[in-house]
Amino acid sequence: MTINGSHLNHTEIMELLQGADDPGLFTSARETRERIFGSDVYLRGIVEFSNHCRRRCTYCGLRAENNRPQRYRLTPQEIVGAASQAPVLGLGTVVLQSGEDTHYDKQTIGAIIRDIKERLGLAVTLSLGERTRDELAFWRDCGADRYLLKFETSNPVLHQDVRPGGTLCTRLGCLQTLQELGYEAGSGIIVGLPGQTVQDLACDLRLLRELDLDMLSAGPFLPHPDTPLGGSEPGSIALTLRFMALMRLIAPLGNIPASSALEVALPEGRGMGLEAGANVIMPTITPGRVRAGYTIYPGKNAANDDVRELVISVKKTIATAGLTPSTDHGPSPRTFQYQ
Ligand code: SAM
Ligand code: SF4
């Protein structure tokens, strides 16, 4: 019998996270995905357009205090040029992601969104960190469809520890603004942050359920040597996969990616993510010239990978899982059949 995620209490979530019903949990997650999405897996091309960041997240290689990476910024023309590969490759959405880089002001990002919407007809997801309500409202008016902002951990003390200068409360406030502005809003966490407990993860899942999101994301912590957490153990893949399966059960309509962090942790990681109920994959379409500089964790991007080959490989992963790569924009099901 499929597990009903809306009724799971804290203790039951903890038990499932600890492996109490592993085969049953994953079967339920896949059945739930199939009920909502059939065999479709949505593809999103991700353009990582700047690796400058004003923040100091202790887990991330792009943190302002790391002077190792060669910093880059793509011009608006280069960003739209990179996005223009998406329709050719059968990707219905472009995700524009960067460090928290205010060099790109409201008008610049707005013009990029308009250009992509008008010329390429893609769905646009933004992942630019915490920005002002005024900026977020303007970008929504320019046509941005979705916004990803992971709260990373719902433990307020750990949150402040790993995101110095940031608070859980501000992050959640920003998410609420996104929902008020009519974005499809996405959030999620990192599994295996040093100091994080299974209790914390159960609280994360309950918060994700409460937030009523359109997109949910969880990837394993991957230590970056040039960060304060560089000497820590990586997050457990088994735990990440259980967390993902539980996300599917608590939010059946959510778009859930098999993250690139999973693939970096294990070559077959993305396929395992699909087995855990994910229905989205986001291959990078960042230009090769700068791609290797987007080092949030080691092994994230390789400079010499051909974008076309990357997308072919993702489509093979999807087919191997018995699923179908979809060219659709892949909106939240709540925006169409389930209203
Ligand atoms: N700067 C924006 C932000 O933080 O929301 C967007 C880009 S940021 C690089 C995207 C995501 O990378 C973060 O939400 C975080 O979960 C993830 N990330 C960063 N460093 C990581 C690490 N060492 N291991 C796993 N995930 C990491
Ligand atoms: Fe910047 Fe995002 Fe990395 Fe934090 S996770 S340092 S905000 S790029």
Structure report:
The protein is an alpha/beta fold. The chain has one domain (5-318): Aldolase class I (TIM Barrel, Alpha-Beta Barrel), CATH 3.20.20.70. It is 42% helix and 13% strand. It contains 14 helices and 8 strands. It has helices at residues 10-17, 22-37, 76-83, 85-89, 106-120, 133-142, 156-162, 168-180, 198-211, 237-250, 260-265, 269-275, 288-291, 307-320, and strands at 40-50, 93-98, 123-127, 146-148, 184-191, 215-220, 280-281, 324-326. Strands 1, 2, 3, 4, 5, 6, 7 and 8 form an 8-stranded parallel beta sheet that branches. Strand 5 (184-191), helix 9 (198-211) and strand 6 (215-220) form a beta-alpha-beta unit. Helix 5 (106-120) runs parallel beside helix 6. The two termini are 26 Å apart. The model has no long low-confidence stretch (mean pLDDT 96). Residues 53, 55, 57, 60, 62-63, 99-100, 129, 296 line the site of iron/sulfur cluster.
